[in-house]
Amino acid sequence: MNDKLNAIKSNLQEVVGEEKLREIIQSGRDLNIYWGTATTGKPHVAYFVPMAKIADFLRVGCQVTILFADLHAYLDNMKAPWDLLALRVQYYEAIIKAMLEVIGVPLDKLRFVRGTDFQLSREYTLDVYKLSSIVTEHDAKKAGAEVVKQVDHPLLSGLLYPGLQALDEEYLKCDAQFGGVDQRKIFMYAEKYLPHLGYAKRAHLMNPMVPGLTGTKMSSSEESSKLDILDSAQQVKKKIAKSFCEEGETEKNGVLQFAKHVIYPLIGKSGSPFESESGFTVKRPEEFGGDKVYPTFEELSSDFAQKLLHPGDLKSNVERYLNALLDPIRKKFAQSAELQDLIAKAYPDENKKSVPLPKNKGQGDNSSSVGGPSVSQLDLRVGRILEVKQHPDADSLFVESVDLGNGDTRTVVSGLVGRVPIEDLQGLTSVFVCNLKPVKMRGVESQAMLLCAVNENGTEPLKVPGTCQPGDVVTISGFDRNPEKVLNPKKKIWESLQADMTVNDKGEATWKDNSLLVNNEQKVTVVKVFNAVIK
C-alpha cells in the first residue's frame, strides 16, 4: 500500500487529502484520478510533465480520466473559437495518445471525456446556477487568478470557469483531481463549495510548475517560452540553444527542470525510450570531461550548481533525450494525411505565416503576413547614448539619454546593471526599438528599448558599423519597412516578433534567419555573444 501511495505522490509539490487516498487504497478499490486540459493552443513539450505523472498513476493501477475541457477553452476569454472546439479536442486526443504511447504505459484504465458531453446537461446546468447563487464575485475571481486570462475588463464567463472545474470533480466521479500547483486556488474553491451542494470533497494532487525556455511558465500563447510537440529537430535545437540556462542556476532553469520532471521519471521504466538506462547520461568530448552518468537528479543538479557541468553540455543532452521522445510522434503525424488535415483545420491561423516580400515590391504595405504581426511594423533605428547613469530608485537599472537622430532625444531605461559595464554604454552606438508604448520603470518613463544579445555566457548590446549615424534605419532583409507610430501593447506585436530574433553562430543579428541591416546594406552584429536571443 505504501509503495502505491509513494508512487502516486512522487515528484508532486503538494498533496491535499492524503488520508482520503490512503483509505481508498487500503479498501482495495482502484483510485479514480482526473486531469483536465483546456483545448486552446497546441500542446507543448511541458505536457510531458503531467503525462509522466499520469504514467505513474496508470502503472500502479489507478483509473485515470483525461478531460478535454472544450467549454472551458471558450469561457477563458474565448481562447478557442466555438466553431473549432470539436476539431481541437480531436487534435488534443491524438497528440496526448501519441505521447503516452511513446512513454510506454498501459492505456486500459485510461478514458477520454469531452467537457461538452456532460457540461450542457440539465443537471449540470442547474448545479452551475446553484453554485452561482452562493459564490461571491471575490471568491470566483480569486480562484481563477492563476489560470484564467486576466484582463482589465473581465468577462462573466471567466468567473464561471472555476465553478465548472469544481463541478467536474462530482460529474466525473473522481476521488482526486490532479493538476499544476497554479490550480491550487481552484482546488481550494472546490473543497469549500462542493459540500454546499451536498457533494463530497476530493483529494488534490499538485505538480510543480516547470519553467519554460525563458525561465518563466511555459505557455502556448508565449511563442518564445515553448517547444511544440511537432517541432522539427532543427527547431528544437534552435529553441534550446536560445533558452535560459544560466551557469549555476538551478531553480528558474527550464532545461534542468525538464530533466527532473520528464526524463528522470522515465529512466529505467518498462516500455519507455530510456528503459535500458541507469541515469541521465551526459555525452561530451574527452577534453571537456568525457561521458558521465548521473543516477539521480540531485547529482546532476549538484554538478550544475557547482559549475562542473557546462550549460552547453546540459542543453545538448536534454535536446538528445527530448528528440528521442518526439521522433516517434513526429513520424506518426507526418505519415498520416488525416492528422495533417486535422492540424490545418483545428489551427487555421497558423497556416497564415509571415513571408518575406520581394525587394522593391509592395512599398507602403504595412504587413507582410496575413492575420499576424509583421516586422515591417517595427521602428528600429540606430541611436547613440549621450549620457548614462544609475536609476535613482532601482539598483538593477540604468537611465540613458539617447540621440535617435533628427532632433529626437529620448530617455531609455535598461536592466543592464551587472550585465554591461556603465563605461561600455557611455557613447555607445547601437540599435533601439523606437515605437514601443512608453512605460514607467520605477518612476522613470522609458521611451525606447536598447537591443542586446543574451545567452548563458553574457549580455552584449548589438553593434552597428562605425560609419552609422543616429537616425539611420534598421530593416530586416527582404522586408519593406512601414512602422506603426506606436505598437499596440495588447496585441503583443513586439513579443511575437522578438521570439524569432537571434544572433547566429557567425555573430550576425537576424530575424528568422534574415539579416538585420542598417540602411538596407550593412549587417548588425556582435563581437562575443553568439548563438543568442535578442531582447
Summarize the structure in short.
This protein is α+β, with helices and mostly antiparallel strands and 535 residues long. It contains 16 helices and 23 strands.
Describe this structure in words.
There is one protein chain. The longest helix is centred in the middle third of the chain and has 24 residues, at 311-334. Strands 9, 10, 11, 12, 15, 16, 17, 18, 19, 20, 21, 22 and 23 form a 13-stranded antiparallel sheet that branches. It is globular, with a radius of gyration of 25 Å. β9 and β10 form a beta hairpin. It has helices at residues 2-9, 18-27, 48-59, 70-75, 85-103, 122-132, 137-143, 156-171, 184-193, 233-242, 254-266, 297-305, 311-334, 337-346, 422-425, 493-498, and strands spanning 14-16, 32-37, 63-68, 110-114, 176-180, 203-207, 280-282, 292-294, 380-390, 398-403, 409-414, 429-433, 439-441, 444-446, 449-450, 452-455, 458-461, 473-476, 501-503, 509-511, 514-518, 522-523, 532-534. It has 535 residues and is an alpha+beta fold. It starts with a helix and ends with a strand.
- Give me the secondary-structure category: alpha+beta
Overall average pLDDT: 88
The oligomerization state is: single chain
Using the alpha-carbon principal axes, give the shape: globular
Helix content: 25-40%
Distance separating the two termini: 51 Å
